[in-house]
Amino acid sequence: MPIAPASPASVEQLLALAIRLANAGQAPQARQLCEHARLQHPPHPAVLQLLSRLQLAQGALAEAGTSIAESLALRPGHGPSLLLAGDVARAAGDFAQALHHHEHAVASMPGREEPLHALALTFKAAGRVDEAAQALRQAVALAPTQGGLWFELALLLQDLGDHDGAADALRQVLRVSPPRAEVEVNLGIVLQESGRMDEALRAYGRAYRLHENTFGRIAHALATAPTGRLWLNLDDLRATLRATPA
Question: Which residues, given as ranges, of the chain have pLDDT below 70?
């Protein structure tokens, strides 16, 4: 059903209502209201920014790019808008433009981990994994209690063959977040790949005791890695995992 105010409303009122709708999970209605405000009022940067975010979420990349470009034209250097412009460009596969916006977002939002995280994602999407890891290191330095950032860093370091760095990052995830079987399995894999088999088995044991459905991945890792071990009887492996000290 079309949504429009019952009486003429200011752009600020329309924006506030659109934000409430978006926060309530009513994205199509919020987008419609932003488009109504766009037609009824002079260009407003916050309306255009929200409209771009809603368009991006709905996969309308060309429209999202136009909206955020119009928003930035009204307030150049606005950090959150630069961040969104980079996200839109990355989603569209324009990594050069995404990097341009995300690097400017980092410069305009010092001390914030969000633009560094976005920059890391763009570097990764562009295949520049070394730089992605560097940006994530800066992000976790600013937000050391965010386990998700540490986990992303661990996966990048694992891809780069830095098993010790990946293990340290995974241990940090476990320090700042509730126990997660997925993290313990990854820790076991990087420890195994660096030849630390006893430590790897302890991590695998913790993972298995958290969730027994990790058994298949653990057994596969043990059987395929050059430094692994082979159990001919899988029940023996299960028993070993149950009994391995934490």
Answer: 1-8, 225-228
